[in-house]
Specification:
Shape: globular
Radius of gyration: 16 Å
Strand order of the largest sheet: 2-3-1-4-5
Helix content: 55-70%
Strand content: 5-15%
Distance between the termini: 7 Å
Number of strands: 5
Order of helices and strands: EHEHHEHHEHHEH
Number of helices: 8
Bound molecules: thymidine-5'-phosphate
Amino acid sequence: MALFITFEGIEGSGKSTQMELLKRHMEGRGMEVLALREPGGTRLGERVRSILLNSSEEPVDPWAELFLYEACRAQLVSLVIRPSLEAGTTVICDRFTDSTLAYQGYGRGLDLEAVDRANVLAAGGLKPDITVLIDCEAEEGLRRAWSRIGSKEGGAREDRFEREDVSFHRRVRDGYLRIAGAEPDRVKVVDGGGEISTIHREICYIIKKAGA
Ligand code: TMP
């Protein structure tokens, strides 16, 4: 069965590394897997991503930010995710609706119900079958994100969220844990503090139990 799997976590949680490892693991078992990221995955999505993450010309209103993420999502779901799932391809997505609830809802302080409604509308009601939340403390995640930025060749590049202070990232992390608490069957929390290989094994076990 084609599954829709999402990865969530704060900056520096290690989710992108784990997502890549899971993709290779599943492909090694002969499964067809498509890896995507949000915002992104379509031409429109990639263009809006660079506006969202790099623009510093003027402050971005939180509602404007919300709707830009939702616009990318609507495009990705209808052009890529739904057709792939219907064709029997498993889709793994780096971030989805839980990111919006965690960042724009808990982080920015927008009304949670309104964010949830916008999520449902943009995703056309599509929900992940399973979500892996890689949990780590805000300080640790930011430390890792910053050291990654510092080591990039050609000078440091940061995005708007990496410039937010630690209290913002704490709210986002707490938001994620609340989401996981409210939907324990779908959202599986993995401790991001362990070894990469240990975390990978745990994720493989979670995905196997979910029916992949
Ligand atoms: P990342 O994919 O490299 O983690 O960057 C995406 C950034 O966008 C990250 O800081 C989280 C943020 N984001 C939101 O604020 N809301 C959303 O709905 C999504 C998908 C991402």
